[in-house]
Design goal:
The complex is a heterodimer.
Chain A lengths: L1 H34 L3 H27 L7 H21 L8 H20 L4 H21 L1 H4 L5 E2 L16 H23 L2 H11 L1 H6 L4 H27 L1 E2 L6 H14 L5 H20 L3 H15 L3 H8 L1 H5 L3 H32 L8 E4 L2 E4 L3 H41 L1
Antiparallel strand pairs in A: 1-2, 3-4
Chain B lengths: L5 E10 L2 E11 L4 E5 L6 H9 L6 E6 L2 E2 L5 H6 L2 E3 L12 H10 L16 H13 L15 H14 L4 E5 L7 H14 L4 E5 L3 H7 L2 E6 L2 E6 L1 H6 L1 H13 L3
Parallel strand pairs in B: 3-8, 3-9, 6-7, 7-8
Antiparallel strand pairs in B: 1-2, 1-4, 4-5, 9-10
Helix pairs in contact in B: 3-4, 3-5, 4-5, 5-6
C-alpha cells in the first residue's frame, strides 16, 4: 500500500518535471531565432529541427526496438516527394489547404510505405531485417532515378510554398515563418514520440529489443511489435521529409538515397541510442558540423566519419551516454575534480587532431582530384602543401601529441574512477 | 470426463533423423503439481519446448484445456494460458526489474500493445507488478537493471516473469538449477506460494525438490515416459530404479 502511494507521488513529480522540459523546449524554439537571427542561423536551425524528428524516428527502430535500418531515408524521402506533389496539385487546383497541415501528407505517405515495405522487412529481426532494409533502400533509390515523372530525376521536383492558402497573413515566404512551422511540428513530434515510449507498446518494444524470444513467451508476437514500430517510424520520418520539402521547396533523387539513410544512422548513434535525448543531441550536433565543416573544408565528410568511428569505439552510448555517465558525479558536486584531467586530455587530443587534420588537408591538396593548386589556408594561415615546412609541422603536432595523449589517458581513467567512487560513497552516507 | 489441463498424445520429435521424443503420452489434471525427471539427454527440455511452442513436434498432439495447441506459436500458446520459465535464465537484461515483471503482465491484463495509455498511469498493472515483486522478494531491487542481479535473484525474477501473467498452467524448467541449499529451500517455498491454485509442470534434477513439491512424477528416459505416478510409487517402481533412480534414491534414504 505504502509502496503504491510512493509510486504515485514519484509519478506526479516526474510528470511535473516532464511538463517543465517541454515548456523549456517550446521557449527555446521561440527565442532562438532572436539569438541566431542571421540567414544561416535560421536555415541551420530549421534543418536541425527537421533532423531531430528524423533521428528520433530512426531511434524508434534502432534504440527502442533494436532494429538496425540502412534504408530509413526511403520513408523520409517518399514523404517529401508526396508533399511536393501535393503542394503542386493543391496550387494547380486552387484548393483551400494551408501549408501548415502539409507535413501530415508526408506522415501518411511514410506510414503507408512503412506498412507496405514493413510487411516484408519486419518478418525477421536482426541481420535479416538490416539486409532487407538495405535492399529496399537501394531499390527505392534506384527507382528514383528511373521513374522520372514522379521523382524528377537528378534535377528533382520543385514547388512553391507561398502559393498555398494564406491563413492569418502567413505566406511562408520569409524563412522565419518556415522556421516556426518546422519548430511547431518538431515539438509536436518530439512529444508524441516521447509519449509513445511511455505506453505499453513502447515498453514491449524495449523488451523485444532486449530479448525477442522471451517476449514471445509472455504473449507478444514479436513480428507485429516490430511491424508497428516500423510503421510509426515511417510516419514520423515522412513528416520530417514533408518539412524538408517545405523548407527547400525541392526534392530530388538523393533525398531517398543511401546518403540520408547513412547520415540519420550517424546522428542517432553519435547522439546516443540508449536515451531519448540522444538523437536530439546527435541531430543538432551533426547538422551544425555539416554546415560549419562544409564551409571550412571540402573533405568534411571524412571528419564526420572519423568522429563516428571514435564514438563507436570509445563511447558506444553516444554523447547522451557520456552525459548520463557523469550524472552521479554531477549530483555529488564533484564534477570540478575531473576538469584538470579532462582539460589536459582535450588539449592534447586537439593538438593531435590539428596535426592529423593538417596532414589530411595537404594530402587532399596534393591529390589529383583537387583543383586550385597546392596553396590553401589552415585555420586562416596560408600554407603550401607542396612545401616541406607544413608537413614537418603536421608530424610535430600529431606524433608527440598522440604519444602524450596516450600517456594521459590512464590519468583520466584514474581521476574518473576516484571521483565516481567518492560520489557513490557520498550518496551512501 | 473432466478436461485435463494439459494433455499430450503420441508426441514425437526428430532432429534430422535423430529421434529425441519417441512417443510421449501424458495427462496432467488442473491444479496438479507434476514433475518430469530423467537423466541428462532424456529430452525433458525438448518436451517443454514442444509444449510451449518453441519447437513444432514431428507428430502427435498437445492439448491445453482441451484445445489443440500443436505447432502453435509461443505467443499464441501463452495467450491461451500457458506460461513457462527457462533453464538458462532468460530475462530482459537492460530493463529494470520492475519493467521485466510489468512487461510480462501487460498482455494478460488486456493492455497488449496499447498506443494510447500512459503505462505508468495504469494502477492495476502497477499494483499487480508490485504484488509479484513482493512475492519474489525483489521489491527492493525494482529499479536496478535485471542484468546486474545475482544469479539467485535472476532465477527468482525468471519465476516472477513466468507467473505474473496469470497463465494457469506453469512450466518451470529446472527452477533451482545452480542454487545453494538455502537458496533452493527459498525457491521451493516461493514456487509453492506462487503456483497456488495453478497447474505446475516442472523439470527438476534435485530429488529433494521433486519429492517435496510434486503430486505426481513422470520419468522420461530416452524420449519415452517409463512411469507416471505418485512419488511413493515412482520411488518403488523397479523399472525406474533400474533406469534412473537406482542409486540416487537409495543413497539418502
Amino acid at each position: 500500500m505504502s509502496a503504491v502511494a510512493q509510486t504515485g507521488v514519484r509519478r506526479t513529480g516526474r510528470g511535473g518535471a516532464l511538463a517543465g522540459v517541454w515548456v523549456v523546449a517550446a521557449a527555446l524554439f521561440a527565442v532562438l531565432p532572436y539569438v541566431f537571427s542571421s540567414g544561416t542561423g535560421l536555415t541551420t536551425m530549421s534543418l536541425m529541427a527537421i533532423m531531430i524528428i528524423f533521428a528520433l524516428s530512426y531511434n524508434m527502430l534502432l534504440g527502442q526496438t533494436g532494429m538496425l535500418s540502412f534504408g530509413h531515408a526511403v520513408y523520409y524521402g517518399l514523404g517529401g516527394f508526396l508533399v511536393v506533389h501535393a503542394m503542386n496539385g493543391i496550387t494547380a487546383a486552387h484548393l483551400p489547404v494551408p501549408l501548415a497541415v502539409l507535413p501530415l501528407v508526408g506522415g501518411v505517405a511514410g506510414l503507408v510505405f512503412g506498412v507496405i515495405f514493413g510487411s516484408v522487412s519486419t518478418r525477421r529481426g536482426g541481420t535479416a531485417f538490416a539486409m532487407i532494409s538495405l535492399g529496399l533502400g537501394e531499390l527505392v533509390g534506384a527507382s528514383a532515378l528511373i521513374l522520372r515523372d514522379f521523382f524528377g530525376g537528378e534535377d528533382g521536383i520543385t514547388t512553391n510554398r507561398t502559393k498555398l492558402l494564406h491563413v492569418a497573413g502567413f505566406n511562408f515566404g520569409p524563412q522565419l515563418q518556415v522556421y516556426y512551422l518546422i519548430a511547431f511540428w518538431c515539438l509536436v513530434c518530439m512529444m508524441a514520440m516521447y509519449a509513445l515510449t511511455r505506453t505499453p507498446f513502447g515498453r514491449i518494444c524495449n523488451a523485444v529489443r532486449d530479448n525477442p524470444e522471451r517476449a514471445a513467451f509472455i504473449g507478444y508476437n514479436t513480428q507485429s511489435v516490430r511491424f508497428i514500430a516500423f510503421c510509426l517510424a515511417g510516419l514520423f520520418a515522412g513528416i520530417a521529409g514533408g518539412l524538408t520539402a517545405i523548407n527547400f521547396e525541392i526534392m530530388n533523387a538523393a533525398n531517398v538515397g543511401a546518403a540520408p539513410s547513412g547520415i540519420v544512422l550517424l546522428m542517432t548513434y553519435i547522439g546516443g541510442v540508449g536515451n531519448f535525448a540522444g538523437p536530439v543531441i546527435g541531430a543538432v550536433l551533426i547538422t551544425f558540423l555539416q554546415v560549419m565543416l562544409s564551409d571550412a573544408t571540402e573533405i568534411w565528410q571524412l571528419y564526420l566519419g572519423i568522429l563516428f568511428i571514435v564514438m563507436v569505439s570509445f563511447a558506444p552510448g553516444g554523447i547522451a551516454g557520456l552525459i548520463a555517465m557523469h550524472a552521479p558525479v554531477w549530483r555529488a558536486r564533484l564534477l570540478h575534480r575531473l576538469v584538470p584531467a579532462y582539460a589536459l586530455a582535450l588539449a592534447l587530443g586537439l593538438v593531435t587532431f590539428a596535426g592529423a587534420a593538417l596532414a589530411l588537408e595537404m594530402a587532399y591538396r596534393l591529390s589529383a582530384g583537387s583543383e586550385g593548386g597546392t596553396a590553401f589556408r589552415f585555420l586562416h594561415v596560408p600554407l603550401d602543401a607542396a612545401s616541406a615546412a607544413p608537413w614537418s609541422l603536421a608530424v610535430l603536432l600529431a606524433v608527440p601529441g598522440f604519444v602524450a595523449f596516450r600517456r594521459v589517458l590512464p590519468i583520466v581513467g584514474n581521476a574518473w574512477a576516484a571521483t565516481l567512487a567518492e560520489a557513490r560513497r557520498g550518496r551512501g552516507r | 470426463m473432466t478436461v485435463q489441463a494439459l494433455e499430450i498424445e503420441a508426441l514425437h520429435k526428430n532432429f534430422g533423423r535423430v529421434p529425441i521424443i519417441r512417443g510421449v503420452d501424458l495427462a496432467i489434471a488442473a491444479g496438479e503439481r507434476h514433475a518430469v525427471i530423467g537423466p541428462n539427454g532424456a529430452g525433458k527440455s525438448t518436451l517443454f519446448h514442444l509444449i510451449s511452442g518453441r519447437f513444432a513436434p514431428s507428430s502427435g498432439h498437445i492439448r491445453l484445456h482441451g484445445a489443440d495447441i500443436t505447432g502453435h506459436a509461443p505467443y499464441e500458446i501463452n495467450r491461451r494460458g500457458l506460461a513457462r520459465s527457462f533453464q538458462v535464465t532468460n530475462i530482459f537484461p537492460r530493463l529494470s526489474v520492475f519493467e521485466n515483471v510489468r512487461c510480462a503482465a501487460m498482455w494478460a491484463m488486456g493492455y497488449r500493445t496499447s498506443l494510447w495509455r500512459a503505462v505508468d498511469g495504469l494502477a492495476d498493472l502497477t499494483a499487480r507488478t508490485e504484488e509479484v515483486l513482493e512475492q519474489i522478494n525483489l521489491i527492493d531491487r525494482r529499479d536496478l537493471p535485471a542484468g546486474v542481479l545475482s544469479y539467485a535473484e535472476q532465477r527468482a525474477l525468471e519465476i516472477g516473469i513466468t507467473i505474473v501473467g496469470g497463465g494457469d498452467v506453469v512450466l518451470l524448467d529446472e527452477p533451482t538449477a545452480g542454487m545453494s541449499r538455502s537458496e533452493t529451500e527459498h525457491a521451493v517455498a516461493l514456487i509453492r506460494k506462487v503456483t497456488e491454485g495453478r497447474t505446475l509442470v516442472m523439470v527438476e534434477h534435485d530429488m529433494g525438490v521433486v519429492f517435496d513439491l510434486a503430486d505426481r512424477i513422470s520419468v522420461l528416459v530416452y524420449g519415452q515416459i517409463i512411469a507416471s505416478d505418485t512419488p511413493e510409487r515412482v520411488r518403488a517402481n523397479p523399472a525406474v530404479q533400474e533406469a534412473y533412480l537406482g542409486t540416487a534414491v537409495a543413497a539418502p534414504s
